[in-house]
Design goal:
By secondary structure, the chain is an alpha/beta fold. 30% of the residues lie in helices and 19% in strands. A hairpin with a 2-residue loop joins strand 27 and strand 28. Helix 7 (184-196) packs across helix 15 and helix 10 packs parallel to helix 15. Residues 1-35 and 603-608 have low confidence and may be disordered.
Amino acid sequence: MKIDRRSFLSFVIGGAAGTALTPLPWKLTDDLSIWSQNWPWTPVPPTGEVTFVHSACTLCPGGCGITVRKINDRAVKIEGMKDHPVNHGGICILGASGLQLLYGPSRVKSPLQRVGNRGEGKWKKVSWDNALSQVVTRLGELRGAGKPHSVACVSGSDRGTVPGLLNRFLTVYGSPNFILPPSIKDTYELTLFLMQGDQAEAGFDVESADYIVSFGSGIIEGWGSPVRMFKAHSRLKLAGGKLIQIEPRLSTTAAKADQWIPITPGTEAALALGMAHVIIRESLYRSDFIATHAFGFEDWTDPQGKPQKGFKTLVMESYSPEKVSGITGIDGNRISALARNFARASRPLAICGRGQGDTPGSIGEFMAVHALNALVGNLNRKGGVWAVPEPDYIDWPDVEMDQAASAGIQKGRVDEAESNRYPDTRYLLNRFVENVLSAKPYPVEMLLVSEANPLYTEPDTQQVKAALDKIPFIVSFSSYMDETAQYADLILPNHTYLERYEDVAHPTGFTRPIITLARPVVSPRFDTRHLGDVTLQMAKGLGGPVSAAFPWKTYESCLEATLGTRLDTLLREGYWVDRGFTAPASRRFHTASSKFEFMVPNQQGEGGLRPDYRPVQPVGEAAAFPLVLIPYDSMRLANGGIGDPPFLIKTVEDTVLKGKEVFVEVNPKTAAALGLSEGKPARLATPKGQARVRVHLYDGIMPGVVALPRGLGHTAYDEYLSGKGVNFNALIGPVPDPSTGLNAAWGIRASLRRA
């Protein structure tokens, strides 16, 4: 079936669909209507035919289905898609504001070429032929000079056909440098691989759990699929289940939890091991599972005859509740009670990944938390953690590599992922930035950026900017004038998510393979092009084996061929879900021992990966920086590749942002010791930077800890977002996990003084 405008419209489904699950109150809606009357670009549709279009929201990794209401060819409202398996008709506040990203002033309307200094904002319009010619010429020159490996791509995702085409392009061109921004998905994938031997993503059956222990996961702040988690939390409450939230700050999730347990930042792994100590000491674990299907729980002797300590010995020797209390600041009796309640629940579930899950965290923390799920036997079972296989519907022919491509691939990755140093880590954007600065193992000559904004989202933005300055040619495919696009040499704007076809596969944390089809709700409004088509055009321009690897004439024909028999279901229903999928047998593992591995030996059976369970120490000296600064997330502040639309920024409370000034949360005891009071200006400093802030006294944060919101401090987009507050990433730097290279930092040492 040809996916064109005519056939697309034939599948439009009429009738109202979905309910809006959003914290946006009706009074605020009235305020927004009044506030927005002065916007010249506010859509005012004429009276006309009402239709509804099913599509997918791509503004976060949640993968929600949406239904867009139209009047004639004008989109006027976004709702959640009724009966979609992920969001079941709900929609978050960011998704509901998506029309402002379609009709707003931050759109890049045509290809642009930089004419001033980088970041200066001086551009000239160029034709698509001119822009593509520049890109293809530069690519051809680098490949001809034997340097295809010097090209890199930062993509917002590696799921679906569009990222697949980009990755395929780099491979046949001769570059190994396809890189993703980090998230908890990276660390959870590693955890499942190391402990279970599964090449899979972690799915969380939160709907069936009856006792959830969350190590800082912002269930109400947008962790995983936001709407799904909202609904799961409500279901948990109605069923009489319990949510225990462990974090240094009383977040919205902590406020809605049955119990909030404040913890010293960075000590979550120690707490998980302290809980394990109690569960083992009191024989509350699943002894049948441990005895038959676990390796490394007890001490063992490797093939060389060397004794190795097991998980049981480790936690019993070093992680008693009394010792853990001194590390975490949590009373030992409380740790014991938490462990008992967790182990005695019918369907307990332990999760981690702080805030919205945009920071990968340390492998020690994730393995310690996952060990709790193993101790109670809740792996691949109802209410537990599932190993969900990676999407397998993209079955393209293998590319034929010529000598130039083979030589380039063998140069290795700039970010050191999948290297001898970090063999199991797939992407390391923080290492990429550091190595670009040092030109090791080789200089990067060209960077492609798709659906990502690393100049805003990555820690230590000054270092990221310095790294970009080292790259001679940067091409952005952004639909919006974000910070990275603003710093590019050439912008080839993609259609927005409401103007294009795209397969959206496997939302974060979902328990079954699922694909949602994004469809064009309206015709492209400006002189933009689908990134899938642009990738095909770049390949055809290079010719030879690069062109031969892309047999499709258009992206739509590629999508149609790739989806195959799933296409009819996707066009009819809006999504395809593998209804026959069930979690793998809980006693089947693909490790070297064919068992769940509490301790991961190397191939010779010796003690191999021994994650560092010690607390993650924030950067900085305590003498100069006596406080610890942590971020916090909010559904009202988008902090990923997309910035807040105007409707969303209007909803931010005046205790977070007032005018253009952001508030730092400070415990009253800490403020008193520093001579600070409510609303007064202060100077916040870290080893990475400093900023002017205002003080907000908040009892819900631990003494000695201060907090800033993520999602503010933009220097790009439009007048409604730019210049408001401080970018938290400008004040923090990465702390690489020694085992994986992933950034383990959540906070940084800081000082706060009266301004």
